[in-house]
Amino acid sequence: MKTMKSILLMGVFALITAFTIQPAGDGYKVGDIATDFRLKNVDDSMVSMADYKDAKGFVVIFTCNTCPYSVAYEDRIIALDKKYKSKGYPVIAINPNDPAASPADSFADMKVRAKEKGFTFPYLFDEGQKIYPQYGASRTPHVYILKKAGKKLKVAYIGAIDNNSRNAAKVTKRYAEDAIDALLAGNKPSEDYTRAIGCTIKVQ
């Protein structure tokens, strides 16, 4: 009986920690200069931030097909892109999961999901999982807002999209929107770091 209770408690703890503990890791901090990437999009083209000559910055979001948090945010990510792309801050989504560990996050499944949802932004595959560790992403979704500074890309915000991952109707703080609005006004975001809430990135 004790053994069964121990196993049950361990299972509950593992489930909770998978969604709530954000392990400390290396990666970009606010104010750091981010390097560009070149990754395959769901339309089979290769996409890099250097392709966006007129952009003022970028909303880089690490997300995926399978995490319930990512799925809950899909419409809000589309709305972010529609609102800010024309203002110079397009969304670029990146799937960091290893499909060997999460088969439904394969490139083929990414194509299906992007078509089903009508993504208005690139949905890139981090093949070999080389990009997300550079950023320090640990969750899906995990947001990095970059601002162009000359030829460089400066990290201006890291964290969550807003303060209610489960219910868009109950959002009271729109962290990503507030950060972009501040940047567009020539100011620094008043809140430049929040804790990303979501699923852990899947590795083999």
Write a compact overview of the structure shown.
The protein is an alpha+beta fold and 204 residues long. Helix content is 30%, strand content 21%.
- The chain-level mean pLDDT equals 90
**Would you list the SSEs in sequence order as H and E?**
HEEEEHEHEHEEEHE
Provide the helix percentage: 25-40%
Biggest sheet features: 8 strands, mixed
Main sheet: strand order: 1-9-8-4-5-6-2-3
* Cα Rg: 17 Å
Q: Strand portion, in percent?
A: 15-25%
Task: Describe the global form.
Answer: globular
Strand runs, count: 10
Q: Termini separation (Å)? A: 33 Å
Structural class based on helices, strands and sheet pairing: alpha+beta
Give the uncertain stretches in residue-range form: 1-24
Structural write-up:
With 204 residues, the chain is of the alpha+beta class. The chain is 30% helix and 21% strand. The protein has five helices and ten strands. The strands form two sheets. An eight-stranded mixed sheet has the order 1-9-8-4-5-6-2-3. It is globular and about 40 Å long.
